[in-house]
Amino acid sequence: MLEAVGFDLDGTLLVVDRDRETLLHAACDRVGAPRLSRAAYLRTHRARQDGADREAVFAALLADRGVDGVDAAALADAYDALITEATAPLAGADRLVTGLRGRYGVGLLTDGPVVTQRRKVARAGWTDLFDAVVVTGALPAPKPDDRAFTALCDALGTTPEATAYVGDAPEADIAGAAAAGFHAVQVLYEGGPEPHPDATATVERSRLVERLPALLDGLE
């Protein structure tokens, strides 16, 4: 019997209406920094899965590039402002989670520095929305490491076989959840990745609020 549901945050419940690399380049342009690649940003971001925030990530990136005269804090503020402008909660996400909490324990498992991710949750007005929020910045490794998924189970007081995980990233969310023994539900969207073979089920992001409760019924 299904006892709990975990959600990814970025790309699943929080949706950005512009390409992330475009936003990163715009932030660099705003403060006079050389344009940094999204791939380099993600590598550095994932290497700093601790209490660090975007300022520390940008400081490391600028140092690696040998860039002087650019304030990492200003770059972080510019990127944060642009991301905030471009990001909105998926319509009806709070209603979906509230409804599911009547039947399941509902948690959030998100990658990234703790300060950054918890700030996103607060900005969405979701501080008290979930039964548990796990940010992998406080853990030894991010998704798809099974320790991340184990931490979610521990926080919700459930087991992998009794838990569904809903996310959009094929490897981090779907392959990771499936390998950890979860029911992996992949969120699909136009222009996004193809369904992963490890997905237990798939659902279009535009229909997530409407269809997920019945889909979870089918996993009972």
UniProtKB/TrEMBL annotation:
<comment type="similarity">
    <text>Belongs to the HAD-like hydrolase superfamily.</text>
</comment>
<dbReference type="GO" id="GO:0044281">
    <property type="term" value="P:small molecule metabolic process"/>
</dbReference>
<dbReference type="InterPro" id="IPR036412">
    <property type="entry name" value="HAD-like_sf"/>
</dbReference>
<dbReference type="InterPro" id="IPR006439">
    <property type="entry name" value="HAD-SF_hydro_IA"/>
</dbReference>
<dbReference type="Pfam" id="PF00702">
    <property type="entry name" value="Hydrolase"/>
</dbReference>
<dbReference type="GO" id="GO:0046872">
    <property type="term" value="F:metal ion binding"/>
</dbReference>
<dbReference type="InterPro" id="IPR023214">
    <property type="entry name" value="HAD_sf"/>
</dbReference>
<keyword id="KW-0479">Metal-binding</keyword>
<keyword id="KW-0378">Hydrolase</keyword>
<keyword id="KW-0460">Magnesium</keyword>
<dbReference type="InterPro" id="IPR051400">
    <property type="entry name" value="HAD-like_hydrolase"/>
</dbReference>
<dbReference type="GO" id="GO:0016791">
    <property type="term" value="F:phosphatase activity"/>
</dbReference>
<protein>
    <submittedName>
        <fullName>HAD family hydrolase</fullName>
    </submittedName>
</protein>
